[in-house]
Amino acid sequence: MSHFDIDEYAYLESPFHSFDPRAKFVSILVLMFSVVLLNDIRILAVGLLLAVALVLVSRIPLLFVIGRLKWVALFVLAVVVVLPFSVSGTALFSVGVLTFTKEGLLQALVISLKAFSVVLLIFPMLATMKFVNFIKALEKLHMPNRLVQMITLTYRYIFVLLNEIQRTLRSIESRGYGRRTSILGLKNLGNAIGMLLVRSYERGGRIFDAMVSRGYNGTMETLREFEINSKDWAKAASIVAVAVLLHVAAFTSSIYVGGT
Amino acid sequence: MKGNGKPMVVRNLSYRYSDGTSALEDVSFEITDGDSVALVGPNGAGKSTLLLHLNGILSKQDGSIEILGMPLERKNVGSIRKRVGLVFQDPEDQLFMSTVFDDIAFGPINMGLPEEQVRERVRWALTEVGLNGYEDRCPHHLSLGEKKKVSVATVLSMGPEVILLDEPTSNLDPLARRRMIEMLKGLRATKLIASHDIEMLLGICDRAILLDNGRVVADGKTADVLTDPELLREHGLEVPMLVKLFGSDALDVIREDF
Ligand SMILES: Nc1ncnc2c1ncn2[C@@H]1O[C@H](COP(=O)(O)OP(=O)(O)OP(=O)(O)O)[C@@H](O)[C@H]1O
Ligand SMILES: [Mg+2]
Questions:
Q1: Packing angle between helix A62-86 and helix A41-58, nearest 10 degrees?
Q2: Boundaries of every domain in chain A
């Protein structure tokens, strides 16, 4: 297993890293919603540029970001290929019975711009803090406690589970079952997966026991204070202001240019 | 408060897992306030199963259990758990929060202690297990021995009157093991320690209960039970080197050593 470290870039220094987790989470979330609700393709382009700028400011290595964007690109590609053929409107050209429409192309572009912008914004938002602080921020923002608990436990045990999967695969291999597909191999893999499920289920029970034996009564609380200062407020205010400005711009351009 | 000065009274306890494995059979013993008792026995003897009963995680099927003067029943289980701490055999089960601090603070917070006191207890517990400065570490990045120490700290921080430990010294390096032993020796609580580390038990405990196949086969002074090579061998336990060398004087040697 390559050593996957969720907090890998949480220790860099940038305006986003020093940003209070709660303020950061909320303000960038507002910006994300603002982008998603836009429909003007030119303003969306501005939004994408903004997102790129924020990623640059956050100092997260671009290679890492691009590596993650691959998967978004795959999804977007599907949309770009399908939509222009499936939305009706002015035909640009046609392939057999399929017509490629201008409206479809526009819609595909709008969706791609939104998807890329939002995904890019995730980096300055989440990769710039330790995951624990993100959970803490959710807790402090009064997210439902059940949800906070679920995220906490997932974060804690996903690594244990990965470890167990890896161990299981290794022990299958070391006992002579190659990765070649054969009925026997598949059967063993099936058994192994079954065992994994049973083990996870039982572990879940034991963890619950451990929680209960330390007085768990349905809520999970932690202590940790975030200090929000005037800089945080200023950063959050600017991001929210940008989010609002995008819509003001979209609104004015729709009045003067006649809308899209 | 402690009833009759016997924080733990177990009578004719039997337990059968749902798959039919009989793990405990007719187990009876009492523990006097402040005692340190060793629980020994080969793999599968029922040690962990017994410990899980003593703070109400497994509910008894047969027999009776009285903890701190209260019968272990549904209505008491909450208050019993506040005063009886259990360190699980597998630290992976014990540590479920995302940082060491949060994990050790979990118990005290649930006990409703004020924040400053919670912090104080976390600090103290970490010092006791020798892990100062580990507050912000994530449990999944700790070594097995470190996880074990944190597990012990999560229970220490609750300040239990009775502490149940399942293999507290497994996976510890020699120095860490020694520190753990010293810490446990200094701890003012009634202790029941399940372990295969007989030397450690000789060092800490006055009394030993030997379990095999779910039954109590010996119960007496550590000096008698754990330095009896024949008894130990008969129940699949290793005779410690010191006992081989010094016989029943081993106890004095070990006590001096720790
Ligand atoms: N969840 C379970 N379901 C079914 N049987 C179990 C379960 N847990 C334990 N057992 C069985 O109960 C018996 C007692 O197990 P227990 O874990 O109490 O032994 P132990 O003395 O703690 O052993 P070890 O020294 O290996 O920790 C064993 O035969 C074991 O196989
Ligand atoms: Mg055990």
A1: 160
A2: 21-129+229-259, 140-213
